[in-house]
Design brief:
By secondary structure, the chain is α/β, with parallel strands linked by helices. The structure holds 2-deoxy-2-amino glucitol-6-phosphate. 2-deoxy-2-amino glucitol-6-phosphate binds next to helix 10.
Length: 613
């Protein structure tokens, strides 16, 4: 997962940047680089591979200076290679950029810049940023203004840091949305900037966290912050605790809240390197899925526990719909005792954050015994589930500390979507136009997640209204039926409130008897193929005196007149909507539990990894 570090001050920037990058190593990356201003000239060292490779490059051709920026990259656009590694220099060699996030409209911007005569030297989306900055610098604009104007053209969520040899006394950094944070650290006559606090914590505990759409102009003596609209911002300096665990939590109260907010970044990393936006194709090489194998598969059985099983339910809808392959979802603790019908043309796909869940491993063992093809979708690299599988998709979320799974739920949803498209492509059941559209829609995901996160205050208001409830019903249908299950699971496991997820169509067959003023009903009623059915659920709940919290698509004025509370979601392609719709439900559960003063990260009776049957 990408990381950024920068330094400006009297010391040599190179070791500070290299050490800072080292502190971000745990996030995972496949290339690294740095740029240092040496004698009024920008020197770049970068390559694919680990930081040891970058250090070797710096040893071979040393570089020293008082201003520098560095980056660890997890490839999104373009393979991990020296030419695609950050920092990216512009045509003049005077400007250099590092970047976290995805420039959603990079194809359009690249075409525009190429027409202006820009020659691109990498396959990355990031490179458009440096050329846009140079476009404005060419008209005698100062660096901060040029960066500001360039950033206004970008779609998506971003963390960006820019350096120019023509204005060597400053670093410009900005955050748009939630592609990871941008934190600025204060030293004595020196300043630091990073995507994550641990990168600079050894130097300072005085930090400023940029909000979305804020830009910082950093000199060795301090910083000025403005909005992307050019309005000056009064910033607050936070004194960060020394405790490394607290430091890891950063600006958040709990790991769960941090991990909810990390989803823009984890979803960016999830599609990183797996999507070829130009060709409209998906690559999942670790799955070892050949065209022959794709043709041979007769059935997929997804097996998992808890949250991971809810991801599997969404996967069923996606794979059946896109790849036209039958899919069963089996709770792992049931699978092995059922004498399941699987054979060598069946794929058994285990989903597990930890990759060590005893029930899931036992199900995999049973599938192996019966000769099935074994796949795993896991987060923990090197875990047992990954080791025993014939192929795997690794979740790119980084470590998940909170016992209640959040970012390790949305990542597999996107993994399964990509798997569905890949299977469909290899089985020849997708026309090119549809394939391209499905692949293209992936670009929207990180920013849509960020737009949900921006609405946390609205969700917190709803949490205040529900904080004393004793029961709660969650209703969803179609692809968001599992979202209702997952929302309910989140609430029950951290707030100890009794919550049920239900397929909305089943209401009339029993649960409707429960509805009265003491039973709030959370209804997922997005503008999707099930909208009308869900709308009628709201009417039915209201008719029985229930309090309705609706998850609705922006601009749905009808729902606003019916529901007691509305949590708004940006319009999202329906097949990707579970990864977006669950985010407010995670925040709702989180805020209810936090308001009740509970131990959010380590709820009673639960373990992060359930290694007993
Ligand atoms: C999620 O919030 C729960 N803690 C739990 O349901 C979890 O998803 C389940 O135990 C499966 O874990 P795994 O993904 O590590 O296999």
């Amino acid at each position: 997962m990408c990381g950024i570090v920068g330094y400006i001050g009297p010391r040599d920037a190179t070791p500070i940047v290299l050490n800072g990058l080292k502190r971000l190593e745990y996030r995972g990356y496949d290339s690294a680089g740095l740029a240092v201003l040496q004698n009024s000239h920008i020197e770049v060292r970068r390559d694919a591979g680990k930081l040891a490779r970058l250090s070797a490059l710096v040893n071979e051709a040393p570089v020293h200076g008082h201003v520098g920026i560095g980056h660890t990259r997890w490839a999104t656009h373009g393979a991990p290679s020296a030419r695609n590694a950050h920092p990216h220099l512009g045509m003049t060699g005077n400007v250099v950029v590092v970047h976290n996030g995805i420039v959603e409209n990079f194809l359009e911007l690249r075409a525009e810049l190429s027409a202006e005569g820009v020659v691109f030297k990498s396959d990355t989306d990031t490179e458009v940023i440096v050329h846009l900055v140079e476009r404005y610098l060419a008209t005698d604009t100062a660096l901060p203004e040029a960066v500001r104007r360039a950033l206004l053209l970008l779609k998506g969520a971003h963390g960006v840091v820019v350096l120019s040899s023509k204005e060597p006394d400053k670093i410009v950094a900005a955050r748009i949305g939630n592609a990871g944070g941008v934190v600025v650290g204060f030293g004595e006559g020196e300043m630091f900037v990073a995507s994550d606090m641990p990168a600079i914590l050894e130097h300072t505990r005085q930090m400023v966290f940029l909000e979305s759409r804020q830009m910082a102009v950093i000199t060795s003596q301090g910083l000025e912050v403005q909005t992307l609209e050019g309005k000056a911002v009064q910033y607050e300096i936070h004194s960060v605790a020394w405790d490394p665990v607290a430091a890891e939590k950063g600006e958040y109260r709990h790991f769960m809240q941090k991990e909810i907010h990390e989803q823009v970044r984890s979803l960016t990393d999830t599609i990183a390197g797996r999507v070829d936006f130009e060709e409209g194709r998906i690559r999942l090489p670790e799955l070892n899925l050949t065209p022959e194998l794709a043709q041979r598969i007769r059935k997929i059985v997804i097996t998992a526990c808890g949250t991971a099983s809810h991801a599997g339910m969404v996967g069923k809808v996606l794979i059946e719909r896109i790849a036209r392959l039958p899919v069963e979802v089996d709770i792992a603790s049931e699978f092995r005792y059922r004498d399941p019908i699987v054979d060598h043309d069946t794929v058994v796909l285990a989903i597990s954050q930890s990759g060590e869940t005893a029930d899931t491993l036992a199900a995999m063992e049973e599938a192996r015994r019966k000769g099935a093809i074994l796949w795993a979708n896991v987060n923990v690299i090197g875990s047992q589930a990954m080791r025993v599988a014939d192929g795997y998709i690794s979740m790119q979320t980084g470590p998940e500390i909170g016992v209640a799974s959040t970012k390790a739920y949305t990542a597999p949803l996107v993994d399964l979507y990509m798997l569905a498209v890949l299977l469909a492509d290899l089985r020849g059941v997708l026309d090119e136009q549809t394939r391209r559209r499905l692949v293209n829609d992936l670009r929207l995901v990180p920013d849509l997640a960020g737009r949900c996160l921006d609405r946390e205050a609205e969700v917190e208001k709803v949490a205040r209204a529900l904080v004393n409830t004793r029961h709660c019903l969650y209703l969803g249908r179609g692809i968001n039926m599992p979202t209702a299950y997952e929302g309910a699971l989140k609430l029950k496991e951290i707030s100890y409130i009794h919550a049920e997820g239900y397929p909305a169509g089943e209401m009339k067959h029993g649960p409707i008897a429960l509805i009265d003023k003491d039973m709030p009903v959370v209804v997922i009623a997005l503008r999707d193929p099930w909208y009308e059915k869900m709308f009628s659920q709201i009417e039915q709940a209201k008719a029985r005196g229930g309090t309705v919290v609706a998850l609705a698509t922006d601009g749905d004025s009808l729902i606003a007149t019916k529901a007691d509370h509305v949590v708004w979601l940006p319009e999202t392609p329906w097949m990707l909507s579970p990864a977006i719709a669950v985010i407010p439900l995670q925040m709702l559960a989180y805020h209810i539990a936090a308001l009740r003063g509970l131990d959010v990260d380590q709820p009673r009776n639960l373990a992060k990894s359930v290694t007993v049957e």
